[in-house]
Amino acid sequence: MNLFNRVISLCDKKGINQSDLEKELGFGKGTISKWKSNPNPSAEKLLLVANYFDVSTDYLLKGIDADGLSEKDNKDISKDLDSIMKKLTSGEDGPASYNGEELSPEAAELFRDELEIALKRLKIINKEKYTPKKYKK
């Protein structure tokens, strides 16, 4: 995925179209479309887009979050998280409980958030530990 596709994807997630984003940021019409063939916007424009979507410029340019995780890493984490939460909420192995009390939906959501943080941290640690030296930056 390139810069243009990432911006369009972020627009879709936010529920706006490309021309709305251009108007919102004060860009000329078609500015973002030009990034499809020439993905070298000015640093100022790149920063405006990054701030608008609350992402890093590294994410826009390379698809890497500020924490060093790629889009694939985030997809893997999301897939694992969904799988774990599905097992937890399905009740296959009985109801999820803590201290003898069944987990409330609010507690399950808090657990999900904490589990996501733990999975991201674990992914970062594993990348540092198991990436061969020749591939490290």
Explain what this protein looks like in three dimensions.
- With 137 residues, the chain is an all-alpha fold.
- It folds into 2 domains: 3-62, 434 Repressor (Amino-terminal Domain) (Orthogonal Bundle), CATH 1.10.260.40; 71-135.
- 64% of the residues lie in helices and 3% in strands.
- The protein has 7 helices and 2 strands.
- The chain has helices spanning 3-14, 18-25, 31-34, 43-53, 57-62, 71-90, 105-130, and strands at 97-98, 101-102.
- Strands 1-2 form a two-stranded antiparallel sheet.
- Strand 1 (97-98) and strand 2 (101-102) form a beta hairpin.
- Helix 6 (71-90) runs antiparallel to helix 7 (105-130).
- 7% of the residues are buried.
- The model has no long low-confidence stretch (mean pLDDT 86).
Total count of strands? 2
Over the alpha carbons, how many angstroms does the gyration radius reach? 20 Å
- Element string (H = helix, E = strand): HHHHHHEEH
Poorly predicted runs? none
Our count of domains comes out at 2
How much helical structure, as a percent, in the residues?
55-70%
Order of the strands making up the biggest sheet: 1-2
Number of alpha- plus pi-helical segments? 7
Q: Mind describing the biggest β-sheet?
A: 2 strands, antiparallel
Distance between the termini: 21 Å
Instruction: Give the percentage of residues in beta strands.
Output: under 5%
Organism: Blautia obeum
GO molecular function: DNA binding
Domain HTH cro/C1-type: 7-60
Protein name: Helix-turn-helix domain
What are its keywords?
single chain; about 140 residues; mainly alpha; 434 Repressor (Amino-terminal Domain); two-stranded antiparallel sheet; 7 helices; DNA binding; Helix-turn-helix domain; Cro/C1-type_HTH
